[in-house]
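Q: How do we represent a protein-ligand complex in a form that can be generated token by token?
A: Start from the inputs.
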Amino acid sequence: MKILILNEALEQRPLGHVEKRCAVSSQTIAKLVRKNIEVYIEEGAGLLSHYTDEDFAKAGANVVSDIAEIAEHIDILACVNAPRESVIAKLSPGTVVIGHLDPFFNEVLVTKLADANLTALSVEMIPRTSRAQKMDALSSQASLAGYAMVMKAANSLPSIFPMMMTPSGTIKPAKVFIIGAGVAGLQAIATAKRLGANVLAYDTRPVVAEQVESLGGKFLNVDIGETGQTKDGYAKELSDEQKALLAQAQKEAITSSDIVVTTAQLFGRKPPVLISKETLTSMKPGSVVVDMAAVSGGNVEGSEPGKTIVLNDVTIIGDGFWSEGVSKAATDMYANNIYNLLDEFVKNEPIKFELSFEDDILDAAVITHDGLVRNDMLLSAYKGA
Ligand code: NAD
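Then emit the structure tokens for the protein with nicotinamide-adenine-dinucleotide bound:
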């Protein structure tokens, strides 16, 4: 069995972003080789996450400068993002393609993968179950993103996070407000707390109040009526009336904060807009807003993905490239997720990727197979239902 890993820094990405992450690390290459999987890796694939070609070769990979010849012979292509079209065109029918395929917003790509008869596994569709935790790339990457974006906000704040009492005076701790306490939000809360800030948080799913408090944050209680969550634990969309009530209730918390971090997402849909331009203009001079949903549409009116803008002396950081500053950690975690997935589904004698749709993880995450898009949620989204 052969697996191919691409050098994704070679690809043209939206907004000029350079992907620094890689789908394997030296450690996971060695483990794949021990499982009798031959690893082929495009030259330079690990450089931006601080793994040299020599490191990968020493771990047992075959480093190749031109992937054209090997591409049609591989069984699995493991990527961070969707593979480039020139690679898709070379793969043989039945090849398993794994990566962040962003399928709800990428119908053209998903159709191409189906038309090429590839078995595409979208890591975003892996269910949030106990068995799937070790392969849950959405969670491993969101945790790091929560940390990285709070560090970015701390560097942009013209003050400090902890309280400082000195003979020259006392500086009060920074006030940080986190909106959305999922995986990224909880890590953002933990990071801001560790740095000494006072942390307030809100989420439409009241079940997370306890988790916020266990990290030392305060939960903002707002009564907007029934909110709840889907059977998979994702937030439900609010009514217009609920959104207005919420915006009003959060305005005070936002305008009295030094840093606001928004992480609100709705699975398979555009994220909700939570902070208006009008609210931004009433924030404290020098305060910082981080919009962690900027790439998928934005929680903050006017934020720009991958850019930092200043509006009325308020710095607005649009997420997009969170992994740039933590590429080594992000690669290590993602590589572990990919290894754990392969360890679960690659069976020996004869060695093969065992594809069974009786398995809840594969049933949810494999979105194309045998020439068809095979996920009902996606098919309804594509029909606009
Ligand atoms: P997400 O990225 O989909 O959303 C981030 C957060 O934003 C969520 O907590 C959501 O409730 C919140 N949100 C949405 N709209 C909002 C609004 N208008 N205002 C404030 N907050 C809003 O979430 P996620 O981090 O991917 O987590 C989704 C679910 O999956 C959670 O229930 C989480 O506990 C669960 N999960 C389970 C596992 C597991 O069991 N293995 C692993 C990871 C996550």
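The mean pLDDT is 95. The chain has two domains: 2-125+326-370, 145-320.
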